[in-house]
Amino acid sequence: MANFYYAVCPFGLETLLADELQRVGAERLEPGKGGVGFTGGHETAMAACLHSRLASRILMRVAEAEYWDSRDIYDLARRTPWEKWFGPDHTIRVGASANRCPLESIDFAVLRIKDAVCDRFRDLAGRRPDVARHQPDVRIEAYLTYDRVSFYLDLAGESLFKRGWRLTHGEAPLKENLAAGLLMLSGWTPEKTLVDPFCGSGTIAIEAAHMAMNAAPGLNRRFAFEKLEGFGGEAWQELLEDARARVNRHAAMTIRASDISSLVVGKARENAARAGLTPLLEDGRLSFEPCDARAVTAPEGTPGVLIANPPYGEQSNPKSASINAMMKDVASNLKANFAGWSAWLLTSDRTLPGQMRLKESRKIVLFNGPLECRFFRFDMVAGSNRRTRAKDTQEAN
Ligand SMILES: C[S@@+](CC[C@H](N)C(=O)[O-])C[C@H]1O[C@@H](n2cnc3c(N)ncnc32)[C@H](O)[C@@H]1O
């Protein structure tokens, strides 16, 4: 049976996410702001959880209606057949997000939904589910607009960008799904050499290595749907087996990541090892080395792609005053050593091209959490960079 699902993702990656979802069999794709609606069976939804590099969550809609006040919301939650998916022995947590919702208190609506679910189970089974703030078995998400309310079950549990390898992190790590988005937007493919000279915890390099190996991002983690009726089972085991069989441990790649801090580089290596990439570190397909970005050199061979998020804003180290000067020197190094390369930099600082005395050939608006960023592309030519800027459909000032 086809259900309606909503896949949440970082703003700016919706079109790419729709492509990903289509590849796992999703239908009637509706890219929106910060997510994509789609239809499909449970198998499609499980495949989306397992294979999507860009989604943060996959939500399954279980009820929807017009409402006037919180009594209508209670009634809808009371009528919803929750017992189809979980029982009174599961722990639950209810959350809500709203867009132009006229209710005075969203928190009160959340409370009423929780009451309704518990009252329904008390009537049916004489017992009610407990509420768990942390790691509930079942997460119920309500979405309230001006006059409609929808209930969703969160199939992911922990956000999907958590791939199961990150324990330690460097300064301001990128979320894994944003790192995947940067790789996809840049047009990087595994046959191209990849360099990240500001690698921090190694997110971009590790994500790229998994992409090159065709390793599904969800292979090393669990999902909330595993505790729901109608999910899991043979279909899930087949999806897992198929994904495991597709991993190519011998995939060719050249990925060079570095950071000025040797401590951070050590942590990135640990992350890579936990991500199952030790063989790649050993045979040199993937490397993490301490190096100042002002002194990084390009690996030999055909020019490749450089992708990084250099330090910016208050979170940065060294502090912002010195970043301008540093980025000017980084630009000199890129001009001297990376001729022919595409260099892509994610930053919240719109003045970065000016600081680097470079003209961007593309500029894409993205959000790193709540921080509005630009993903700048610079086409590196030796000496000065005089290319005119290409027209960019996703450009904004
Ligand atoms: C925003 S963080 C990068 C985060 C990384 N993408 C991740 O996901 O973990 C910026 C990194 O730049 C490093 N850094 C600062 N100045 C540098 C320089 N001159 N050369 C190389 N790395 C530098 C910092 O140590 C920090 O790890």
TrEMBL record:
Example GO molecular function: rRNA (guanine-N7-)-methyltransferase activity
Name the Gene3D superfamilies for this protein. 3.30.2130.30, Vaccinia Virus protein VP39
Domain of life, source organism: Bacteria
According to the entry, every stretch annotated as the THUMP domain falls at 44-155
Q: Does the keyword GTP-binding apply?
A: no
Sorted alphabetically, the keyword list is: Methyltransferase, RNA-binding, Transferase
Is this entry keyworded Methyltransferase?
yes
This chain's protein is named: RNA methyltransferase
